[in-house]
Every structure is written in structure tokens, then in C-alpha cells.
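RETRY 2/3 - previous attempt timed out on the joint model. Re-submitting the same 649-residue input unchanged.
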Amino acid sequence: MIIEQSKMQSLAARMSKDEVKGRSPWADARKRFFRNKAAMAGLIILILVGLFAIFGNSFAVWSNEELDFNVMGQVTTMGMPSLENGHYFGTDDLGRDLYSRTVQGTQISLMVGIVGAAIAVIVGTLYGATAGYFGGRTDQLMMRAVDILMSIPYMFVLILLLVMFGRSMSMLFLGIGLISWLDMSRIVRGQTLSLKNREFIEAARATGVPGWKIIIRHIVPNLLGVVAVYATLLVPLMILTESFISFLGLGVQEPLTSWGALISEGAGTINYGTLWQLAFPLFFFCITLFGFFFVGDGLRDALDPKER
Amino acid sequence: MTRPLLDVRDLRVTFQIQSSGAMPWHKPKQLRAVGGVDFTLNPGETLGIVGESGCGKSTLARALIGLVPATGKAEWIDGKDLISLSPRQMMKYRSDIQMVFQDPLASLNPRMTVGQIIAEPLTTHHPNLKRAEVKERVKAMMEKVGLLPNQINRYPHEFSGGQCQRIGIARALIVEPKLIICDEPVSALDVSIQAQVINLLIRLQKELGLSLVFIAHDLSVVKHISDRVMVLYLGKVMEIASSDDLYAHPQHPYTQALLSAVPVPDPDYDPVASVVPLKGDLPSPLNPPSGCVFRTRCPRAEARCATEAPALSLGDHQVACHFPGPLTETEIARARRTEAA
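RETRY 2/3 succeeded.
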């Protein structure tokens, strides 16, 4: 039998290397994710939208507060998108630059989505993992509390909150944060229940690792796949909720704006032929939602819960 | 005589089973998983525990390590009763008793590197150790169990089943325990790998002076590794004896039936001539038979067996049976006739 010299040498070199680097399940998932074309397209869209939100203002000729007195009163004829007068996306009804308004709306909407999802991830994961891991009466109490909160029509409560305590950004975050973690905690609890009887958890308990450390070190990392997928699907949900609230006129208030508020304004003036007032915010809104859904889908495929 | 490392007296584990749809005030059913087990384990000794599935082997192991609540006494070598200790007091003994699990891959966290997995008991019990020192000890332990120390950063899915079991053994050994409980450590492995892992266990036991509790349902494996063997049936001890004695002269009819069912690697061997078939299935532990738990399937059962539970006899060869003794020809013949009928 002929042994290939070079192959054996490289094998020997590898075996004698100081420390071989392992391939973590995360690295595997990353590779699968990058191979998924739709997810990559979604990710690129999201990155572009993010860049637009961060750096968009530096390309704007007009700030989002200035009124362009040249177009005021004749928006249908003068306020359409043009490169010459610096209104790339046209102006809104008051003569404000729609480009910088859209940048501002993108910032706010993304922030609402990400903050809402972040609250859901942090609170929901810890709450659900705790309930699932400790089980028994603790679990019963914690999950019945979630059931009660879930049975309340949240849109109604959110609207009441905004009406009673004034319409402010912080109140909006609070309202969205309060409701967003409920579903997450249920999903996480279910996953924890299936994890907690696995032998590696038992091994940790047998050596005497304290409960909170088991949750942080053993349970949460094994849940993160599900959590990541759900979080990416939660961001557009939060954006949608905020847009709906703003569409009703209860969300963010002038001079601030969001996609929902802009779309609402644009839809209100659609009869006067100023179609761009609806089209531009709506375009960003749609591609961002698509982007998040594709990324979420790709993550789900990459982090396939079937362990191999 | 020296003090035994572990002296277990009347260990019982009972689970409360709330039947589905029952109201909270309904009395839950009692599932008697382990019903009064007595044994002793000397330092450096290997005790094999055998029995069919559902007889309480794994529950017994988990009770010893404090994973399921139990009653009774389990006296450690220093006189402390492990079962009555609070979780905080138990912490001190957790590094003395370690466990090796059945499914090698499932007992390792897939998101942690081998180094982190093996180091976990060490960092739990000695939180002040420096990182470099932990790594040093992990590498030394990997070498000891036959793994390449340079694979310290790899993940469990990159190893074979046998290697994963070695990782599990390294994790158990890193805190220098006095007793390792092996819960069917080789059942999930290929036969050739089984031999490797068992020989590794035997070698490590000799080197480190460990005591082992070795749970298995493979009788030949148990015979190979154990000094003494305990036979369990439905949560009760049927027979405890030294391994050679038990295999050569089984006294309890259940042990005899078990041993006669061991496959013999000989094509000319006729199993029909020597296998004693047992009637029926394992009774439900929710509703165990009165008296001797084995009487429903026992060829020697008489009226006395239904009323009076046999106590474990004293001495080196302990049997829990009213009518102990070697298997007779007439019994084999009778068992075969009822099987045929």
C-alpha cells in the first residue's frame, strides 16, 4: 500500500499542532446562513436601510424642520421629487423635505422595532427560562401571570395608556415593551422544558452548579437559536404595531415622525395627486419588513433545531 | 474491618404521580421506584448493579447523588448521612461523588468546548483557580483518559461516541472524586468501543483508587468489571454477592433466570436446553405485588411468598428469597412445559 507522503505529513503536522481550533455550532450556522441567497439579500437590504437611517441626513439639502416657502401652497406642482431643488423625495403638504423626513422616520421606526424586540428577548428569555427550569409551582404562577396579561386586548390598553399619560416616545416604548415579551417567554419556556431533562443539565446539577448558572451557561445558549429567529420576526411586528398606532394618530408626535405617521399623511393626501408622499415611506417600510422576514427565515434554516 | 465508603440502609425513592386531569385535592398515586435497598461499598471496590429496565437502577444512582429526593440512610465514610444533608452541606460531597452518564453525546453541552465541559466541575468547586492552571489540569486529564490535549477547543459534535464518553469520564475525574457512579456508561457504544471504555475505567480505578458503582444491563460487562454484583428487581435487592460467586452459584431464581439468558458466543450451544423462561412482564411499580415482588413470575412461589416479604440474608452472599438454592433440573423442565403450553 502506498501512503501519500504529503498527506501523512500534513496530518502529522495537524495532530501535533499546539491547539486545534474547534468548529462551533454557531460557526456552522453562520456558514449555512451565508450560503442562503434570499437571507443574504434580506441582510444587504437591512444594512442599506440602516446606513440610510444613520448617514442619510448628511446627504440632505434640507433639514427635516425647515419649510420650503417656494413650494408651500403649490405642493402638487412644485413639490414633486427633483434633484434640482434638493427635494429628492419631494416635499410633504407643509413644504417640508420628504427625504429628511423619511430618514427621521426610518430612525424612529427602526429604534422602536429594535428596542421592542430587545426587551422581548431579554425579559422573555430570562422569564421563560426561569419558569421552565424551576418548574412546579413557580412555573404555574409565572405562566398564569403571562396568560392573564395575554388575555388583555393589548391594543386597547396601549391606546388607553397613550391617551391617559400623554403621547410620548417613552410611553410608546413602555407599552410595546410590556406586551412584546409574552409570546417570547412562552416559546422559551417550552424549549427549556425539553432541555432541562437532557443529561448535560443533569450532569451540571449533579456536580452542584447553582441554578442560575445552569440557566445562563447551559440553557440560554442552547435556546439562542430559537430566540434569534423569533426576535428577527418580532422586529417587523413591533414596527407594524408602532405604525398602526401612529396611523391612528396616537404614536410619535410632531415634530418627530415615523414610517406609520408618514404613510398616514401620504395616504391622506393621495387624492390631490401627491403620490410620492405615500410611495417613498411605504417603499422603505415594505423592503425593511421583507428584509427582516427573509433574514428570519434564513436564520431558522441555518439554526435548524434538528441537532445533528 | 475498615469502614465502608458508602453504607446504604433502606433507601427508598417514591414518586407522587398525579393522574392526568385529576383535581388538586385528589390523592396522587405512589410510584415506588426504589423500595428499600441496602448495600455497602468499600473503598476501591466496584459494585455492579444489574436488572431489567424499569427496576430502579438509574433512580438509585440519582438518589445517591441527590438528584431525586429519597428517604433512608446513605452513610458516607466520615459518618455523614448524605440523604439528610441540605443542598449547601451536600456541596462538599458533590466533588467526592461524580457521575458518568449513559448517552455520551447528550451528556455534553453542544455549545461548549471540551475544555469548558471538563473544567466545569473544577471551576464550580474551586472557583479561585487561575485560568491557566485550570487549563493545565484539563489537558493533563484529557491525556489521562486517552484524548489528545490539543483538541481542548473542539466541540462535542466533532468527536465519536467513545471519545465523548472519555470526555464524560474526564469531567467526572477532574475533581478527584472517591466514588464514580456509572449509569450504563457503555450501553450506547459499539462493542469494540465498550471494551476500550471499560478497560479505561478499570485502569483509572487502579491508578486513582476509586470506588465505582457500575450500572448496566449487560451481565457479561458487569462480570468483567465488578468485584461484587447486586441484582435489582422492581426496586428491591434480590441478591448481592461477589461477582465470581454470583455468576457461578446464583441462589435467587430471578438471578438464575437472568444469567441463563446471557447469550453464549458458541454456535453449538443450544439455548433451549438451559434457558429458563420467565413468565409475564415486570409488574407495575404503581401497584407492586404483595410479599415478595418477584412471586408473580417466580417458579418457586408458594403461599408464603404472597404474605411475607423475604428479608435480605446476612453474610457474604446475600439473598432475598424464602427458598434460595441452585436451579434444579425439575424446575427447568417445568418452566419449559409451561412455556410450551
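Chain B has twelve helices and ten strands. Closing ticket.
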